[in-house]
Amino acid sequence: MPKAVSYMAKNTLKMDEALLTVHNQLTEDITVLFVSDYCYKCLYQPVVNVSAEQKNASVVVSTLFTLTLKVEPYSQNRTLCRWTQAFEEAGHYSLRVTQYETTSDVTCFLSVDKSPNNSYLPLLAAALVLAVLSLLWTVAPYVYRWKCTSKIINLISCRRPQLSTENEDLSAEITSQPKSSRLKSLDTFRGLSLTLMVFVNYGGGGYWFFQHAPWNGLTVADLVMPWFVFIIGTSVVLAFSSMRRRGVGRLQLLRKLSWRSAVLILIGFCFINYSPRDGQRTVMVLVTDSWSSAAFGLHLLCSGFDHNWWNPIQDLVLYWPEWLFIVALETVWLCVTFLLPVPGCPTGYLGAGGIGDEGLFPNCTGGAAAYVDRWLLGDNIYWHPTCKTLYRTTQPFDPEGVLGTINSVVMGFMGMQAGKILLFFRPKNRNILIRFLVWAILLGTCAAILSKCTRDQGFIPVNKNLWSLSYVTCMGFTSFLLFGLMYFIIDVRGWWGGQPFIYPGMNSIFVYVGHSLLGFYFPFSWEMRYQDGHWEGLFRSLWGTFLWVLIAYFLYRKKFFLKI
Q1: If the chain, 564 residues long, is cut into consecutive pieces of 10 residues, what is the mean pLDDT of each piece?
Q2: Same domain, 452 and 528
Q3: What value, to the nearest 5°, has the Cα angle with vertex 176 and ends 170 and 179?
């Protein structure tokens, strides 16, 4: 957000800020206005007014997104000049508005008074360090097993080399041990999602693409929650199938599912609810969990079907009641979203409101989704949506609202489909990978058609705030693709053991609850001293994430796993 500054504040620019000094060399007062290119059909907002007597004024501008600026005579709707500029962090810029004596044309000339910083340098340095550490982690076992290295280690530690017969016996014993049936790729996928979640919750180094998108579009932070829901669906199918094979009855499974739901609700009360000033969000967790439990319960009721004659498509046909349930849910979402009349708003509105859409619908943030939440809870819902700063909205909106939970259940159903594919075709890895690829192609095609491969101009834009249908199909596409790739690399080929993501993946509840409770206490986090760049913020985010991965590793070594 641009803001006027004094001369003394010119050297106190913070992260993602630049200084713009406007020099008015005209004989009339001027005003400078801006609009962010990430803000869809937004109204221009004033930056600074510069009178003919004042001559110049300075203002801090955001460097997060590309800005379109224009200069107008004060109190007149007439554009003198317009240009698009991507300001860079800590840069000092001068805008000179002048008029030639021989002509009436006004010229706007932008110059750089102080070179900006490279805001991506901390990210490149961190990527290089992580790449080196990963390489060392990969090479270290081979170096350790190297013959000369083993002799040096034995000499330093005063150990006598073992006889070759003992080594042969040990190797034979290891190879004779039964191979674990646990899917390492699923634990690794879960751990990757959780690690990214911890990283973005610690601030993601202050980079905008590690924060949630203001409204439409995707960022790294928008990937985490759908992946987690997808993994929950896969895990439930595999876990319940394993318990059924051990003779556990359906009634016992339903009791376990009810207990798990109760614990998740308690976690929601403790960690997802915000203060009264922020608005109430607990009911959203209750609705999400109850609907998810209904889907998993339906899966239990359908798990007894067995018809061998349609084996090639059994993962689709045997659970047809689930498909009817999901189709009904999605029909409800589509009808409510696009057919429910919302007072003062166009039917089927999917915008952010505020200054978006030419400012025509300022109080329509979220359309039907927000209207349903307000109908259930009044205005006591979340007051700080991600669109508030960019779109200058004034209405509360919960990105995990009641209507959005319908499509979160659909996301979990996609994960259940992945679990069924693994159950029915597990010995046939080629069939599993082909089915994962087919699902990814179908869902990716649906997302491309619904969004028209654009951020804002599709039939249904990709929007995490609304959990739109295109968003869910896009996330299903990435989930099947990434899970299939991990399954091939880790479980089929054995090229990677999943480290280090497998450690938090096997203790996800502990890491999630732990970082929610202790996330902003030392040594996991601290109050930043240097806020003029991304260096300290990125280090703090990486450090906190590293500590939780390290804790998960020690718990893994101690064979401690917190489960629900």
Answers
A1: 48 85 88 92 91 88 92 85 90 88 76 90 92 82 63 56 43 44 88 93 90 92 90 85 76 74 68 49 47 57 52 68 87 94 92 92 92 83 86 88 86 90 85 93 95 92 94 96 94 89 91 84 84 88 93 91 78
A2: no
A3: 120
Query: What one-letter code names the amino acid at 199?
Result: F
**Residue 483: how many other CB atoms lie within 10 Å:** 25
Strand order in the sheet with 30-36: 45-50, 30-36, 67-73, 81-85
Q: Which domain holds residue 133?
A: 120-158
Residues 510, 461, single domain; the answer is no
Closest by Cα among 386, 388, 389, 395 to 364? 395
- What is the model's pTM? 0.86
Residue 207 lies in a domain: no
Please indicate, yes or no, whether residues 310 and 327 belong to a single structural domain of this protein: yes
Question: Is 171 within the bounds of a domain?
Answer: no
Residue at which a domain ends, from 497, 523, 546: 497
Q: Taken in order 332, 334, 340, 343, is the CA torsion positive or negative? A: positive
Query: How far, in Å, CA of 29 to CA of 52, rounded?
Result: 5
Q: How many domains does the chain have?
A: 4
Domain end position, chosen among 60, 92, 114: 114
Domain shared by 485 and 532, yes or no: no
**Backbone dihedral angles phi then psi of residue 83, each to the nearest 5 degrees:** -160, 160
CB proximity list for 334: less than 8 A, separation 6 or greater: 469
Hey, what are 146's tokens? 């190297």
Catalytic residues: 212
The helix or strand, by DSSP H or E, that contains position 92, with its residue range, turns out to be strand 92-99
CB 512 within 8 A of CB 551: no
User: Are 483 and 543 part of one and the same domain?
Assistant: no
